[in-house]
Write a structure and sequence with these properties.
Number of domains: 3
CATH superfamily of the largest domain: FAD/NAD(P)-binding domain
Number of helices: 12
CATH class of the largest domain: Alpha Beta
Number of strands: 25
Largest sheet: 5 strands, parallel
Shape: globular
Oligomer: single chain
Length: 452
């Protein structure tokens, strides 16, 4: 019986395991040193905030794995012998494999700041980071102030988590606006205002210079690039993540920033594959990045590779870029490509509309010559993925998309009230006379609908 071994029990590795089991009788073993069972990493923040328990983050009951003949080993892989096809672990006996899937995910990126080894300095990625946070910042009496370093998605999540326990937060962002490296300036300014409205001490154009210790090796304060001393008991480092591949560096497996894979997710060693955050594409699709530390790409890679493992060799085709996030109560979605003001290509133009009083906005990127929709960012509005994906695939014009905007709304009962203002603004800016088209997505995207 073929032995398939998967290192890592995150979304990529577990998706691969589940789909291999659906399509084959191979022996499957999943190895992870983090937790005994798969859990939803994106839900960790809600455990700290009291919205759920850790048990609620596990999508499958503990009996699921034995019933589906997926073996689980909680241990750390310290060495891979690619010639003998063996894995050497810290505590368990060596494990042999016929096919190996490396899905070890990411780890927080630290930048060698003085004092970063002090107690109370941590990232937010693994289950152990959640446990550390519970110990370092259980309440505002133990943690009188926290400093979060890094203006990205993990940073705003950590700020919200701490804020939920009434712990004052100072947020250090080195750019002029929060998430300025990803969003156009108008979108980034919207988030600046929203973060400040929640009482977060947002410091823009400010970097961490040094972490200063106090008694018993604990954090006492940070020194900023402005030479300001900020007393704190927790420093959250959220300056990005990097592939978790240190244990592979002494093997013949080809590496760059991540594990190099082709469009079939194969490494340079036959029978060894890499998926998820640790994989680096050598054949990138369109404008997508070689490494994408995103939940849904890990899931798609797992599904794709399972087909190959089971005899149906399949290339990884992620399709149009999309992502979503949440900034306190403001939901964010992006589809296609909406570049920052600095990275806009010559043909790319932006149309922007923002509600005058609420954190609700849309920025649409379009081709200035053809009016083709290139991408869209929305804040405080939920869109239907199938509709946006179809519009991008069919190269619809921005005119068409805004006239049919009702088709894209996931929750029209809350969003329809803004459609008229959105279309009026577009008509005013571009001196057009577009009229809204009656909602028709059910007829287009639901073949079973009887509505006319």
């Amino acid at each position: 019986m073929e032995q398939v071994v998967i290192i890592g029990n995150g979304i990529a590795g577990i998706t691969a395991a589940r789909h291999i089991r659906k399509n084959s009788n191979a022996a499957i073993t999943v190895i992870s040193s983090e937790t005994p069972h798969f859990f939803s990493r994106t839900a960790l923040m809600y455990v700290y905030m009291g919205h759920m328990t850790f048990e609620h983050t596990k999508p499958y009951e503990d009996w699921f794995w034995e019933k589906n003949r997926i073996g689980l080993v909680q241990d750390h892989v310290k060495q891979i012998d690619t010639e003998k096809k063996q894995l050497f672990l810290d505590q368990s006996a060596p494990i042999s494999f016929d096919k190996l899937i490396i899905a070890t995910g990411s780890k927080p990126s630290f930048h060698q700041w003085p004092g970063q080894e002090l107690k109370g300095v941590q990232g937010l990625y693994h289950k152990r980071d959640l446990d550390l946070l519970e110990a370092n910042a259980p309440n505002a009496q133990v943690c009188k102030r926290a400093v979060v370093v890094g203006g990205g998605l993990i940073g705003i999540e950590l700020a919200e988590m701490l804020h939920s326990r009434h712990i004052p937060v100072t947020f250090l962002v080195r750019e002029a606006h929060f998430w300025e490296g990803v969003l156009p300036t108008k979108n980034a300014k919207l988030l600046n205002d929203h973060i400040l409205s929640h009482g977060i001490d947002l410091r823009l154009n400010t970097e961490l210079k040094e972490i200063i210790g106090g008694d018993q090796g604990k954090v006492k304060a940070v020194l900023t690039s402005d030479n300001e001393l900020i007393e704190c008991q927790l420093v959250g480092i959220t300056t990005g993540v990097q592939p978790n591949i240190d244990f592979i560096k002494n093997t013949p497996i080809a590496l760059d920033k991540g594990i190099l894979v082709n469009k079939y997710l194969e490494t340079n060693i036959a029978g060894i594959y890499a998926i998820g955050d640790c994989a680096q594409q050598t054949e990138v699709t369109g404008l997508r990045r070689p490494i994408e530390a995103v939940w849904y790409t890990g899931r798609m890679m797992g599904e794709t590779l399972a087909q190959t493992i089971c005899g149906n060799k399949t290339a990884y085709k992620p399709g149009h870029w999309f992502n979503s996030a949440k900034f306190f109560e403001v939901e964010y979605q992006t589809y296609g490509w909406v570049n920052t003001d600095k990275r806009k290509q010559e043909h790319e133009q932006h149309f922007h509309w923002q509600h005058p009083h609420e954190p609700i906005a849309i920025t649409a990127a379009y081709h200035k010559e053809t009016n083709q929709l290139l991408g869209v960012n929305v804040f405080g509005i939920r869109l239907r993925h199938a509709v946006l994906d179809a519009w991008l695939s069919q190269h619809k014009s921005l005119d068409y998309c805004l006239a049919h905007w009702a088709d894209a709304l996931f929750d029209p009962e809350f969003s329809n009230s803004h459609q008229k203002d959105l279309l009026n603004h577009y008509n005013t800016v571009f001196q057009k006379a577009l009229k809204p088209v009656k909602k028709s997505w059910t007829k287009i995207f639901n073949p079973f609908s009887t509505k006319k």
